[in-house]
Amino acid sequence: MAEGAPENGTSAANQVVYRPEAIAAHRQAREHFRASQYTSSRTLALLWATSLASVAFGVALVAVPVPAHVSGTAIVVPAAPSPGAGGEGLMLVAFFPPEARTRLAAGQRLLVDVSGKGVRLESHIKEVEQSVVSPEAALERFGLKGDSRQGPNGPTACAFAVFAPPGTEGLSATDWLGSTFRVEVEVGQQRLLTSLPILARFLKG
């Protein structure tokens, strides 16, 4: 065998020699490709998750029911003058917008904000006035003639509920007479989207 010839019989001209730099570059390119594949898969999964969450949120907006409330004000009066009341105790006369009258009914839950800080008592409507009441009639009927600030400032729908004052040390039940509170009555249910008017207007264009 000639000196310097390859042992396997392959000529030197046919041998391919890879430089270390080329091998390193090839390995780096393969690693980069694998990393790109992993990143693409993770991004795709994130996009799918975001899409599914958006669909679920949209379904919740149009399908999930939430309580519908009507807001108003109420004043504490002696129980006897109020319709449906009997015996001793205190009643709430609640004033609501006149358009809410047809949505009010006996038995509905009434939430009373007694502190102005979100601490609310729960009561239930006992009776609803059958017709809209004028401010003057409301003031005269419930003994508020001397202080119009306690009564409604326009036509109103009236509802009546029992008032059980919170257990405040040093105060008797009669000390609450004439007190005024913000109240909310639960009149039914509505779609979640309806309770977010800004978002509802945006989606409607």
Structure write-up:
- Helix content is 29%, strand content 26%.
- By secondary structure, the chain is an alpha+beta fold.
- The protein has a 6-stranded antiparallel β-barrel with strand order 1-2-5-4-3-6.
- Strand 3 and strand 4 (120-128) form a beta hairpin.
- The longest helix is centred in the N-terminal third of the chain and has 44 residues, at 20-63.
- The model has no long low-confidence stretch (mean pLDDT 74).
| CATH class identity of the largest domain | Mainly Beta
* Low-pLDDT runs: none
Strands in their spatial order, largest beta sheet: 1-2-5-4-3-6
Structural class: alpha+beta
Quick gist of this model?
The chain crosses the membrane at residues 44-64. This protein has a 6-stranded antiparallel beta barrel with strand order 1-2-5-4-3-6.
What layout of secondary structure does this protein have?
Elements: H1 20-63, E1 65-78, E2 90-96, E3 109-113, E4 120-128, H2 135-141, E5 157-163, E6 180-191, H3 197-204
Antiparallel strand pairs: 1-2, 1-6, 2-5, 3-4, 3-6, 4-5
